[in-house]
Amino acid sequence: MMRFAGWRSLGENDLLTKLSTYLTPAQVEEVHRAYLFGAQAHEGQQRLSGEPYIAHPIAVASILAELHMDHRSILAAILHDVIEDTPTAKEQIAEQFGEEVAQLVDGVSKLTQIKFRDRAEAQAENFRKMVLAMTQDLRVILIKLADRLHNMRTLGVMPPPKRRRIARETLDIYAPIAHRLGMHMVRVELEDLCFQSMYPVRYKVLQRAVKRARGRQKEVLRRVSAALKKQLKAELIDAQVLAREKHLWSLYQKMRDKNLPFEEVMDVFGFRIVVERVDTCYRALGVVHGTYKPVPGRFKDYIAIPKSNGYQSLHTTMLGPQGLPLEIQIRTLDMDRVAESGIAAHWQYKEGSELANAPQLRAREWLKNLLEMQKGAGNSQEFLENVRVDLFPDEVYVFTPQGDIRRLPRGATAVDFAYAVHTDVGNTCVAAKIDRRLVPLRTQLVNGQTVEIITNTLARPNPQWLDFVVTAKARANVRNFLKLLQGDEAVLLGKRLLERALSDYQFSLDRVPPELLGETLQALRLGTLEELLERVGLGDRSAALVARRLVPAGEEGEASGARASGPLAIRGTEGMVVSFPGCCRPIPGDPILGFLSSGKGIVIHNENCPAVAEFRKQPDKWVQVQWDTEIDRTFPVEIRVDTANQRGVLATVASEIADLGSNIEKVQVNEHDDQTSTMLFLLAVRDRKHLAGIMRRIRSLPAVLRIQRTKG
After folding, report:
1. How far is it, in rounded angstroms, from Cα 426 to Cα 418?
2. Mean pLDDT over all residues of the chain?
3. Residue-wise over 296-317: b if at least 16 C-beta within 10 A, else e?
4. How many CB atoms lie under 10 A from the CB of residue 615?
5. pLDDT at 152 over 70
6. pLDDT interval class at 4 (50, 70, 90)
7. CATH number for region 203-354
């Protein structure tokens, strides 16, 4: 055993001793071989602290050994920097220690060979790579968390700006991931280390205050602990009663967010009661409620309904001696281990244990959602932002009509619920029922509700959903669907615009020679005709200029006469690439002008709109448009109605509008004085004729003094 002496001297903890308690001698020997391999690879490298670089991988492996991770995880931890920081190739690791270890090391390694525009892009792309590796093997994130934890423990040697940047990244991403995976011990230490690096003075002040308060609390804690133990013993319940203390970051957050002084935060005492069996948890709950008076509404059963990270406990708050609040957690010994270690418990328990697998199954479900988000995200930074949103859930628990539980972040709406059930359900939802009552899709959900989603196969996501959905999965799917939808619509509109421009030359798209099309695509740096049509439809390329490129040289002169094509017919159903701005709200029958806006397609304005004056300076952006003869949709229009200030006048006007087949989308009432009121209605109308009929009917009402259509 003497050959391990040098190894042990490199770290604070004796890694060998830890590993020998649960690994076989052959596995420990292989870990030692990995150490020799890593030490040779990192030879000559030092950390900023001055110690040999290999001390860091040893420390990371030691953290994983405390979690009783399998020996391949330990091997990967010792080798986790050799690909990134030494000339060692992944193939060499695979040859020496197997493909599984090589994949783990590669998953943890950063993308060092790729040049990024800035630090934010590099961070996002490296995070995307890590998530994809996590979906293949959960141990990747456990090694990464251990790596980050040791880096945070040794962050003091870094300059202050870099310390703060790394701490902020850890607090934003890695600590929430540890929480999501149920790794309480890792999360708490990461958060406190981040607090120390970001706000060193506040950290020291709060640390000293906690030490002083701890001395004053000893007697209260002893009395409460003795009372609970006595009552539990009287009921023949074998239990451990442990006092628990809030960690510094948690205390600081509570003081800051609730604007509380330190004394009020420290007035809350916490205890954990650990028993053998699940049914004993509920018996123990009855005992503690009999010992001290429970606070109404402060009981939560996370055993029957576990948290999304697999955490299980009974939580209750009671009034202790002198009215002091007591926070009690009651759980089994197995639940306690899972609560502390999260998914790492999978490697601590025997294979097949239900408790060991539960957190891992939940973690895999979360990673599956991340994978969906990754596919729908436009780039790595958008993906990282979606994950950040997803990492801070304050959960609500709702039920499907079949009684299945769905966990959602607080503030989640019916649309978020629909996407939680299935992406296709979200994409086609048209209405929702909460406890059998129809509600708007933007309705926020609360605990215990039963939610039913009504779908229609012809429905599609609405861009306005992005204003109220809160889950990253819903947001990513809506964005992705609209992005694809916009692309399809842009191709169709681009084809119409280009065919119209080509018709000026008595030419058409299907007559363009393939070699000329290829030259045009190459000159414009586009890959396919579909990409070209999409760029034209989105207003990024002028249809007239593209048409000029596509017409063979001998046929250019044919365009010398008057325009052969008529105005582009607008139906109003083109969607996102044909839009109607709120400045003038054009409706069928109004004289209109189309203006190409880069990335947005055609924006339709009323010819009398004040905004058109600016557009007239750019005639190359104009598109001659007219309303289609057959339009089957409604358009928003605003009218102003001045009335005598009488009781029931709003109901009378609204009734007349409804009788003429128009929906009121919005109404605003402004009272000018005691005599008159002004009402602004946003209506949905078919065309000018429909609007004129509504205005005539309203004008005939005795209480109406004046009515006019407003624009902008």
Report:
1. 5
2. 81
3. eeeebebbeebbbbbbbbbbbb
4. 18
5. yes
6. very low
7. 3.30.460.10
Collapse the DSSP code of 164 into the 3-class scheme (helix H, G, I; strand E, B; otherwise coil) and give the result. helix
Contact 470, 389 (CB under 8 A): yes
Is 81 tagged catalytic? Answer: no
Residue 661, token pair as written in the block: 């087949």
- Contact between residue 698 and residue 662 where contact means Cβ atoms under 8 Å apart: no
Q: What is the CATH number of domain 635-710?
A: 3.30.70.260
What residue spans define the domains of the chain?
2-153, 203-354, 567-627, 635-710
> Which of 327-331, 354-358, 596-600 is modeled with the greatest confidence?
327-331
Choice among 51, 70, 84, 488 that is catalytic: 84
3-state secondary structure of 444: strand
**Looking at residues 135-142, what average pLDDT do you find?**
76
Q: Give the helix ranges, DSSP H, for 42-118.
A: 55-66, 71-78, 82-85, 90-97, 99-108
Q: What are phi and psi of 277, to 5 degrees?
A: -120, 160
> Which residues is 317 bridged to in the sheet?
327
125 pLDDT band, cuts 50/70/90, is low
Give residues with Cβ within 8 angstroms of 555, minimum separation 6.
Answer: 505, 506, 507
Residue type, 224: V
Q: What is the CA radius of gyration of the chain?
A: 33
Is residue 116 very low, low, confident or very high in pLDDT (cuts 50, 70, 90)?
very low
Is this model's pTM higher than 0.90 or not?
no
pLDDT in tens, 595-612: 888 777 888 888 888 888
Q: Report how far Cα 690 is from the mean position of its chain's Cα atoms.
A: 44
Under DSSP, is residue 528 helix (H, G, I), strand (E, B) or coil?
coil
For the chain, the 3-state helix, strand and coil shares in percent, each to the nearest 5, are: 55, 15, 30
Mean pLDDT of 672-696: 89
Q: What gap in Å lies between CA 237 and CA 233, rounded to an integer?
A: 5
Give the DSSP H/E element, type plus range, for residue 362.
helix 354-376
pLDDT in tens, 224-266: 899 999 999 998 999 999 887 778 898 888 888 778 888 777 6
Is the Cα dihedral 37, 43, 48, 50 positive or negative?
A: positive
| Separation CA 627–CA 587 (nearest Å) | 9
How far apart are the C-alpha atoms of 444 and 424, rounded to whole Å? 21
The upper half-sphere exposure of residue 310, i.e. CA atoms within 13 Å in the direction of its Cβ, equals 33
Query: In 3D, which of 637, 625, 626 has the Cα closest to residue 686?
Result: 637
Q: Do residues 676 and 644 lie in contact, with contact meaning Cβ atoms separated by under 8 Å?
A: yes
**Which uninterrupted H or E stretch holds 520?**
helix 514-523
Closest C-alpha among 646, 649, 641 to residue 696: 641
d(CA 94, CA 107): 13
Q: 643 has which bridge partners?
A: 677, 704
> 2-153 has which fold?
Hypothetical protein af1432 (1.10.3210)
84 is catalytic: yes
Q: Kindly report the backbone phi and psi dihedral angles of residue 591, in degrees, each rounded to the nearest multiple of 5, phi listed first.
A: -70, 130
Please give the Cα distance from 529 to 576 (Å, whole number).
Answer: 21
Closest to 41 in 3D by CA, of 85, 76, 7: 85
Least confident piece of the model among 107-116, 462-471, 475-484, 640-649: 107-116
For residue 393, the cross-strand partners are none
Cβ burial of 86 (10 Å; 0-12, 13-18, 19+) is middle
585 Rama sector, left if φ>0, alpha if ψ -120 to 50, beta otherwise: left
Catalytic hit among 51, 66, 85, 121:
85
pLDDT (tens digit per residue) in 531-563: 888 888 888 887 878 888 888 876 655 444 444
Distance between CA 532 and CA 526 in Å, rounded?
7
| Sheet strand arrangement including 622-623 | 578-579, 601-606, 592-597, 622-623
Q: Which of 30, 36, 92, 81 is nearest to 56 (CA)?
A: 81
Q: Is the pLDDT of residue 658 over 70?
A: yes
